[in-house]
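Input chain follows. Return C-alpha cells only.
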Amino acid sequence: MKSIKHQLLGLLLATCAAVNASATPTQFTDTFFVPGDMSGPGTLQTFSFAGGDASALAGDTFIYDFLFNTPPPTAWFGFQVSADDPAALAFSDIALFAGDLATPITGFTLSLSGPTAGGYGILDSGVYDVRLSGDFLADGATFTGAGAADLADVPEPMSLALFFAGLLAVAGVRRRANAPQARAALMPC
C-alpha cells in the first residue's frame, strides 16, 4: 500500500514540475503612434510616450515600437526614456528606424544604461520608429519618455555659406588693418 502512495506522490510531483518548466516568460509586443505638436517651421515639436502592461510579471520581456512624424524640414531630434521605478524595469536594447522600420539609422547617437535610454541627431522629414525592448523586473512596471524635434537649431545651407563668408571678410579686414603696424615694426629707427 505504501508503494502506491509513493508512486502517486511521485506522479503528482512530476506533473507539477512539468507544468512549472513549461511556464516560460511572456513577451509583450505593441506599436504606438505618438502624436506631436505640429506648430509650424522654426518651432519646437514635442513628443511623449509611455509603455508598460498591468498584466506583466517580473521576468517577462517587452518590445515596444513608438512611431512618430518629424516636421517637414530637416530637424534636430532628441529623446530620453526612463523607467518610472528604476528597480522595476531594465531596457536591453534601443534602435531608431526610418520609413521601412527595418534598417536602423546610422550616425544617430543612442545611449542605454539599464533603466534609461536616449538618443539625439539630425532627422529628415518622415515617419520614424523608436524601438525599445527590455525586461520587467517587477510586476506591471512602466516607463515614460519625451522627445523633441527642433527646426531652429538646424542651419540652412545658405545661412552657413553667409556665416563663413562673413568670417572670411572679418579675417581679411583684420589682416589689412594690422599690415601697416607690422611694416612699421620692421623698419629700422
